[in-house]
Amino acid sequence: MEQSGLHGEVNQQPSHSRVWALETLHRFSKLAPTFLSLLLGVRPLFALAPPGYAAAEAATTTTTTTTDTSPASSVTVPTFSEDQAASDSDDLFDEVWKLTSKFYLDRSFGGSDWGKARVDLRAQSNLPGDSASETKATKKLLKKLGDKYTQLLSPYMYTEMSRFDPIGAGFMLSIDDDGYFCVSSDPREGSVAAAQNVQKGDKILEIEGVAIKGKSVFDAVDLITKEDKADVRLTIQSKLHPGTAPRLLVLPRDFNAVSNPVTKAQLTLTEDGRKVGYLKLREFNSLAKEKVREALSSLEEQGAEAYIVDLRGNPGGSVQAAVSVASLFLPEDKIVTFIQDATGNRLPLKTQGATALPPSDPIVVWTDRKSASASEILASALHDNCRAVLMGQRTFGKGLVQGVFGLTDGKGLVMTVAKYETPRGASIQGTGILPDIEAVIPSNILGDQDVSVVRKEDFGLKDGMCVEAMASK
Fold first, then answer.
1. What angle do CA 330, 334, 340 make, to 5 degrees?
2. Mind giving me the DSSP string for 18-65?
3. Is 203 helix (H, G, I), strand (E, B) or coil?
4. Reduced to 3 DSSP states, what percent helix, strand and coil does the chain have, rounded to the nearest 5?
5. Residue 414: CB partners within 8 Å, gap ≥ 6?
6. Which residues, including other chains, have CB under 8 Å from residue 9's CB and lie 6 or more apart?
7. What are the φ/ψ torsions at residue 352 (nearest 5 degrees)?
8. What pLDDT sits at residue 4?
9. For the packed helices 92-103 and 131-143, what is the interaxial angle rounded to 10 degrees?
10. Torsion of CA 454, 459, 460, 461, to 10 degrees
11. How far apart are CA 207 and CA 217, in angstroms?
12. Separation between Cα atoms, residue 372 and residue 378, nearest integer Å
């Protein structure tokens, strides 16, 4: 799961339309044969200009620059005539139309006249109508984009996204346009947050006693997870009663509904006497950083001298989780990936905090055709920063980023909002990442992984590759 909180007002949209972005799996999508990649709680790097709802105007082109002042691509902000624009009182259809108008990555909207599409579909569907009519019309609207990753989620599917919530307090978070963290989903039924009457739209003023306004999602996650506490202290301001004093709540971090993404961590003594730590990571959910760190610490205590990180079959997870896991292997302030949003702005996401391994421990990352999205972010980050050798098969090639927006009626909207590049600036969309060592990695007769397929000299390949990479700059 971001950056881009994917918020921003369109005619002062209410806070329910905020996004808690992340990368979700194919089981949430009948349209996508593989995986969705989503960014958690991220704001647009720079807000798009208002789309001109009041009257038809000439389209304006806004040229922006990246955070390092290098030029970024320009984007055309759509304008809509008065009869095409949505009113302030949204039904589901108009709520989704506004969000796509504001944040969808492809500003040509798949070649559709987006204002005309709204007018035509509302007329054809006799909107406003009942819930079923609005849902059907909204799905037709999204289909015009021709994007298999952009779709409507049922309330159940939207709630299921909570397994990517790194807080564990029973609700999703987003960032509003004033820089405040807000509760963006109803608390999970039976949770302490629900019992304490936490409401969607409530503002989070402090996390662990630290004022959080204006901070990034990574800052928030770091405050919560760096000490692996069993609970989290939040200072919350009620949305329904803004005149009341903020409340300090101590909420247990409950991940019972989230499975451990590390499915295997074992030490193997090879025939040539090497102690190799093997770690299999299934997905990048809210427990990824904590569980990977635990596994690495255990392997270090057992005397591991080299590591294999197995990302085969890993379809992704939250972008934040991928960056957090990369931080366990790389020094602080290293670029993990670049995110570029609909404005054309390009933001580097960097490592934070201490590493879990000595820099002298060599690493090989295993990949295959099902390693996608967040897996590709981690693999390329370790490779491009000269920390690991890649071995296996070319990865899937998922370089698009989706955001998940909570809607008024409890549904969710998954929408392509950004794309990402590797630390060296390569786009992997549709092409994937070619490993340094191409191989089909077999299991032994018992189904265990044979780490001996990685030769001693394979671990050292990165040194030569990095010399070549530096010489080519």
1. 125
2. -B------GGG-SS-SS---B-SS---SSPPPP---SS----EEE--B
3. strand
4. 25, 20, 50
5. 24, 28, 29, 36, 38, 149, 150, 151, 152, 153, 402, 403, 404
6. 177
7. -140, 145
8. 31
9. 20
10. 70
11. 12
12. 10
Reading the block at residue 66, the tokens are 């990246």
Low-confidence spans in the chain with pLDDT less than 50: 1-77, 470-471
The neighbour count for residue 146, using CB atoms within 10 Å, is: 12
> Where in the sequence numbering do the catalytic residues fall?
373, 384, 398
Overall pTM surpassing 0.85 (yes/no): no
Cα(94)–Cα(96) distance, integer angstroms: 5
Q: How far apart are CA 456 and CA 452, in angstroms?
A: 9
Closest CA to 417 of 113, 19, 63: 19
The Cβ of residue 371 has, within 10 Å, a number of other Cβ atoms equal to 31
The alpha-carbon radius of gyration of the chain (Å, integer) is: 23
Per-residue pLDDT tens digits for 248-277:
999 887 766 678 899 999 999 988 888 999
Q: Which token pair is 411? A: 């549904």
List, as one string, the DSSP characters of 267-299: EEE-TTS-EEEEEEE--B-TTHHHHHHHHHHHH
Six token digits for residue 111:
């070649």
The reported pLDDT for the residue numbered 353 is 85
What does residue 364 show for φ and ψ, rounded to 5 degrees?
Answer: -120, 130
Token pair, residue 167, equals 């807080």
pLDDT value for 89: 52
Among 118, 115, 76, 78, smallest CA distance to 94 is for 118
Question: For residue 359, is the peptide bond before it cis, meaning its omega torsion is within 30 degrees of 0?
Answer: no
Which residue carries 């709520």 as its tokens?
95
Of 266, 286, 287, residue with least CA distance to 277? 266
Per-residue tokens: 458 = 């394979």
Q: Report CA-CA distances (Å) from 90 to 87, 143, 245.
A: 6, 20, 31
